[in-house]
Amino acid sequence: MSIAKTLAKLSISLIAFSTLSCASTEKAQLDSALNKQSVYKAMKKVTDWQMSRFNNKTYLFEGYEEGAHMAPTDESSHPQGWVYASFYVGMARMAELESAKGNDQYSEQLLDIAKHGKYLFAPRIYNADDYAIGQLYLDLYKKYPNEEMLTPLKVIFEIILQTPSTTTLTYEDVTQTSVHDGKLLQDFFGNRQFQLRPCKNRWCWADALFMGPPVWINLSKVTGDSRYLEFADKELWETVNLLWDDKDHLFFRDTRFFDKREPNGEKVIWARGVGWVAAGLARILEHFPKDHPSRAKYEDIFRKMMTRLAGAQQSDGLWRPSVLDPDTQPYKETSGTGLMAFAFASGINQGILDKETFMPVVNKAWAALIDAVQPSGKLGWVQQIGDSPDNVSAEDTQIYATGAFLLTGSELYKLAK
Predict the structure, then answer these.
(1) CATH number of the domain residue 241 falls in
(2) Among 129, 139, 207, 325, which one carries the catalytic annotation?
(3) pTM of the model
(4) What angle do CA 159, 294, 351 make, to 5 degrees?
(5) Splitting the chain (417 residues) into consecutive groups of 10 residues, what average pLDDT does each group show?
(6) 264 contact partners, CB below 8 Å, separation of at least 6
(7) Does 259 qualify as catalytic in the annotation?
(8) Could you list the residue range(s) of the whole structural domain that residue 31 is in?
């Protein structure tokens, strides 16, 4: 290794150590013990901090520090886009838990959010990021059955069924210029600019397996329409066959990473990317028919991936941004860890993963997630919006990580004494 690379790596390590030391002085005084009271208390504290940042007039999360606040012109800030949708997946489970205790406050707040948006979606019909919020409407439908909630979702999926995308799954950004004035063409919806990525009209990236197929399969179960299930099953395996690495039993984020390698020579496997897949498969298996011919394949690939991820967990209970080269970015990271912890806990609860084998992994991950909660209830150590391993600090947060935390908590609450 060159002197420059050695110094750069040392610099990263020192920064990480310094941030760790400063952040360890203040804790949220939460108990990581797996009993229902402790798990619920942690979920409640994190939920209330997050919802205190929600503006009931704009229906946006605001009041963040600069790094976590999403600008109104950013495509990720769309209130019905993937960032919000992935938070609502966890928040809906917290609301269900709270309702079981006799308090419908969270459920009614989510219902108000859904009504305000008229049960609609972000603008791109084929992009899983933009219809992922359909899971919120399905979750609300269980408590407040009203066909109006599911009508837009059915319309969108009917369009996809009748005219499915046939684009390649090769991931690339596309730029086009006008033949009239030579200016760059972009997709603009409202005041937001969306990057042109044709393959995202299908599930060509790992995150999509969390955003898309669980909604299709859940809708099939709710409506009894098997077309949704069969479409999702077919498309999902196209993606799995492309991104699954049968040697390491992990998923690449997208085709751009096939030939990339970390400094230690390992493949670039992004923690949150593979976390999206793990959590997505866990959610799929919750609703996938037990007698379907594909069921055994889902369980097999899920077990293989979770076994591999268990071996990559670090001594502090977390996974680093780069799963196979933790020294590249030696930072704590809670969004990928939260998604994986949920998948482990869900797999145990569903009887797919062996409890004796994997419960120690869950215990360590939960203790680490609790340790990342600040006294205010803010969940720190969240890698910001991106598509590959990157730097993280104790102050970094995002609502998708809160969603993952609540997903994990909801499963641990079932497991807890």
Answers:
(1) 1.50.10.10
(2) 207
(3) 0.92
(4) 115
(5) 43 42 58 94 97 93 70 83 97 98 98 98 96 98 97 98 98 84 71 86 98 98 98 98 97 98 98 98 98 97 98 98 97 98 98 98 98 97 96 95 98 95
(6) 324, 325, 327, 328
(7) no
(8) 23-415
